[in-house]
User: Which sequence fits this backbone?
C-alpha cells in the first residue's frame, strides 16, 4: 500500500513557475513508476509526465520543454517543475504510483492539487 500526498499547487500568472511535490509513504516508492496527471472538469485525466523506477522520463507533447519530472528516492518524493505556465495548464494535478509484479498491478493516486494559471 502506498499513500501519496501532493502539495505545491496554487495561483500563478502566465509565464510563471510552480513546483509540485508528491510525498509517498507506506512502501518504498523507488520500485514504482511515478507519474503526474491532470484533469479539468468534464474531461478525462491525462498523463503529463512519468518517471520510471530507473529514472527514464516521458512527457506529453503539450508540456515538453516546459515541465520537468524528477524523483528523490531517499525522500520518497517526486517533483514536477513547471515553467512558462500557460492558462491551459490550469487543472487539478494528481500524483500516481504504478507497479506491475507478475500478474499483479498496483496503482495508487493522490488526492490532487489545484493549479490555476491566470492573470
Assistant:
Amino acid at each position: 500500500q502506498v499513500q501519496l500526498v501532493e502539495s505545491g499547487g496554487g495561483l500563478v500568472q502566465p509565464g510563471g513557475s510552480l513546483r509540485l511535490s508528491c510525498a509517498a509513504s507506506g512502501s518504498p516508492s523507488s520500485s514504482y513508476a511515478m507519474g503526474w496527471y491532470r484533469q479539468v472538469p468534464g474531461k478525462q485525466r491525462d498523463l503529463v509526465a512519468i518517471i520510471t523506477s530507473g529514472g527514464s522520463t516521458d512527457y506529453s507533447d503539450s508540456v515538453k520543454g516546459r515541465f520537468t519530472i524528477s524523483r528523490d528516492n531517499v525522500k520518497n518524493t517526486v517533483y514536477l517543475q513547471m515553467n512558462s505556465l500557460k492558462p491551459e495548464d490550469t487543472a487539478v494535478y494528481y500524483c500516481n504510483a504504478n507497479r506491475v509484479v507478475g500478474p499483479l498491478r498496483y496503482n495508487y493516486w493522490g488526492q490532487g492539487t489545484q493549479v490555476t494559471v491566470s492573470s
Q: What stands out?
A: The mean pLDDT is 95. Residues 98 and 107 are 5 Å apart (CA to CA). The two ends are 40 Å apart (CA to CA). The chain is about 0% helix and 55% strand.
